[in-house]
Amino acid sequence: MNASHRLSVTWKDVPTRTITAGGVDFAYRELGTDNPGTPVVFLIHLAAVLDNWDPRVVDGFAAKHRVITFDNRGVGASSGSPATSMEEMAKDAITFIKAMGLAQVDLFGFSMGGMIAQEIVLMEPRLVRKLIITGTGPAGGEGISKVARVTYFDMVRGWLSFQDPKQFLFFTRTPTGIRAGKEFLQRLKERSGNRDKAITVAALQAQLKALRRWGAKKPADLSSVHQPVLVANGDSDRMVPTKNTHDLARRLPNSELIIYPDSGHGAVFQFHADFVPKALAFLSR
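-> structure tokens emitted (285 positions)
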């Protein structure tokens, strides 16, 4: 793909491709510049497929970097049986990254993706140059084992009120948060063609099992992670309580922390106009 073609493609119309590695057909999308710098691999959240990435965030990163996103094993259009631990998901991500021919990457992990990113950097430190982890916490973090309970509760709230559960899970119930949630959900609909397959119930249950395991785990020693890490969240995260984000930043020796006001789990989507330039500046330093 030449540079001019790459630059003309946006998240709304970038094709979905497949690469086979480790017996899995990974569905992925790739866009951005032919900048010789380090590619950024996006790691997705609980219950999500490719279409759950905010176009403003993907296109914002892709203006300066090669961006690669993929469906986890057994999720969306990727084949195989879904993983039931963060460690398995991290191994799958490493398999995918190496199959793409990438010697070193930057990682952007949101929520569950931030947990996978932590496992990747512990398993293969040389593979990772920098990390951006948002709406997440460390293994054994307070309240993480209860994510399933919060998720099911807000799924029911969504069904009863004919709303997407992400309106409750990702955003505050203040006027600002409600408006931000509606805007975010509209952006997710901008891609009208060649959309991804929805996650199955079995894959969601496997991910919830992985989250319970992660929450019950002995806290990881992150003192060996010397890569620069940008940590971000909202001040009122219901899914992964915000105190975990502060804890994560403290545990990482080379971290920067951003906490957005009047926002929850999806703060980096609510504040995309502020977050993307900060993330790009962090990656360019």
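The beta strands are 17-21, 24-32, 40-43, 66-70, 105-110, 128-134, 229-234, 255-260.
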